[in-house]
Amino acid sequence: MPGTPVSQQFAGESLEHVWMPAAGQAHGTVIIVPTVMGVTDLERGFATRLNTWGYHAFIADTFGKQFRGAARDVMFGELNRLRSDRAALKDRLLAILDVARQQQGVDADRIAAIGFCFGGQCVLDLARTGVDIAGVASFHGLFDPPGLPANPIKGKVVAYHGWDDPMVTPEAVVALGKELTEAGADWQIHAYGHTGHGFTNPNATREIGIPGVQYNEAANRRSWQALEDFLGELFS
Questions:
Q1: What's this model's pTM, rounded to 2 decimal places?
Q2: What is the edge-to-edge ordering of all strands in the sheet holding 135-139?
């Protein structure tokens, strides 16, 4: 499989990220935080696309190496475990960011993070810490706040959201906008009509098996085009 494994110990757990650098000089580095299913070929495909755009890609292993390829029910259990302690999740994400910064050729001032589903929530939580990061992009992410002390948000924030997502109500979308405004963030929310959760994943229905979770070609294409513009704005 493409990419170089990057090992990390965190809280007694063995994480194994995937480092996929661009050829030659990169515009910046993009951390990819996966869905509930963890590191898969889907994220490697995302990384390859980012490489063609001229970005290094670092696929974050949030769950741990032992869960690579695990069944859906196992991964949902791990999702609930990580979401149950958002303070510990914050520490995990900051530790992963530190490892990404250490990779060869990475400019610590030119890092963004993108995330999908649970990973979308993770990158929002990373921005919520107030850490120095150029920007974050959440694809069909979860919006509920972590319940931790608020910090000024330094990085730019964009969320690509399916309006019919059963996991994120319209009220939650409004609440996120209010939260980001109060944090002083430069923020955008792109909502796609007639679109549910998981719209970037062609295998979403089979993998997740929840009504309202499915791939949407138009929303996938539009959100990735918007991401290319967003990254260009961050790193121009």
A1: 0.97
A2: 4-10, 13-20, 55-59, 28-33, 111-116, 135-139, 156-162, 187-192
